Amino acid sequence: MRRKFLIMMVISSFLCAVSTFAAPGKVLTVGADGSQYEKIQEAIDAAGAGDTVKILPGIYIENITINKNLTIVGTSKEEVVIRAASIDKPAVFFRGVSDFSMENLCVETVGAAINISRSSGRIIDSHVAGGRFGISFSGSGMTLKIIDSYITALAGAENDGPIGTDLVGIYAYGEASLEIEKTTFERTGTGVSLSNGMNFLIKNIIFKRNTIGVALNGTASGSLIENRVFENVENGVLLNITSSVILTDNIFYSNSGHGLDLYLIECTECGCGGTEFNGTVTGSGNLFDSEEEICPIEYWEDGFFVIDRDLAVDRQ
User: Fold this and answer.
1) Which pLDDT score, from 0 to 100, does residue 157 have?
2) Residue range 53-67: mean pLDDT, rounded
3) What would the mean pLDDT of 68-86 be, rounded to a whole number?
4) Residues 101-113: what's their mean pLDDT?
5) CB 222 within 8 A of CB 246
6) Strand 258-261 to strand 177-181: parallel, antiparallel, or no bridges (unpaired)?
7) Residue 140: which of 120, 118, 160, 121 has the closest Cα?
8) Full strand arrangement of the beta sheet holding 127-130
9) CA 225 vs CA 110, 193, 243: distances in Å
10) Lowest-confidence range among 77-86, 121-130, 136-145, 159-168?
11) Do 126 and 149 touch, CB atoms closer than 8 A?
12) What is the pLDDT at residue 272?
């Protein structure tokens, strides 16, 4: 009897394990013709944690809110566009989600494009064109990863005029972690603005034709590695920090202001900043096309930078 009981227990445990690992979430489809849902929000509301909402080609005029662990995936960022129905709310709002994934989408609005509040997740292979910001991220202990994406200000998409620095590609603050890789920031007011304890990794990024490429403030700390920073109007990377930042193997050229600026008014006659720098900047292997790209020129330790006057020519 005892043996039979033990066998039944083993079988029951095995079936439970099989059920756990062999039961992936449902796939709910959104599209105009023959799909389960016509609206993205309808599919999100019907989905359960772990499900996938698959969006077929089309332009979707709506504001969507996600408050459960879902994968939101489009056919491609060229074919699936979400445009905010109301500019008074984010086009996409993640709220209190521990693990989301947003993939292959385009989000456009003159307001806030994507707001990520108290949530962790990933944005992959997406196009974000926002107004006030493209992506806003906050939440103590949360982690956001952005990979293989393109981020711009909607006002700068087909416009060569100046863009105010308050139109931010990514605005992130708080005691959280942000990782950005293989992504382009072009024609924003400020590509990335980080502050208030944000820990970051910014790697293999193009910052091109923004007003400011990266603005780091307060206690934001982390690393910038193997980025290309060029043709920005005011500054490529602007540091006004009280923390530590590492810059390694970045390339700066053809920026109208400074490629790298420590926000010091006495560092140069240009009058571009404050009165003292309280942070720490270390690193090595950074390339600049002229002495004017790095400010102040005398701050850095040996090996931090090299001047290569052919940088801009080599990369045309």
Assistant:
1) 73
2) 98
3) 98
4) 97
5) yes
6) unpaired
7) 118
8) 58-61, 80-83, 106-108, 127-130, 150-153, 184-186, 206-208, 228-230, 251-253, 286-288, 305-307
9) 31, 17, 17
10) 159-168
11) yes
12) 59
Amino acid 14: pLDDT: 43
Encoding tokens for residue 145? 């990863």
- pLDDT at position 71: 98
Give the position of tokens 């103590």.
140
**229: exposed, middle or buried (Cβ count in 10 Å: 0-12, 13-18, 19+):** buried
Q: Using CA atoms of 292, 298, 299, 304 in order, give the dihedral in degrees to the nearest 10.
A: 70
The two tokens of residue 267 are 């560092």
Q: Which H or E run contains 41?
A: helix 40-46
Q: Cα separation of 184 and 207, whole Å?
A: 6
Query: Is the peptide bond between 296 and the residue preceding it cis, with omega within 30 degrees of 0?
Result: yes
Residues 54-61: what's their mean pLDDT? 97
Q: How confident is the model at residue 202 (pLDDT cuts 50, 70, 90)?
A: very high
Residue type, 110: V
3-state secondary structure 98-153: CCEEEECCEEECCCEEEEEECCCEEEECCEEEECCEEEEEECCCCEEEEECCEEEE
**At 1, is the pLDDT very low, low, confident or very high (cuts 50, 70, 90)?**
very low
Output b/e per residue, 59-95; b: 16+ Cβ within 10 A. Answer: ebeebbebebbbbbbbeebeebbbbbeeeebbbbbbe
Kindly report the number of other CB atoms within 10 A of residue 270's CB atom: 12
The two structure tokens encoding residue 191: 């590509």
159: amino acid identity, one letter: N
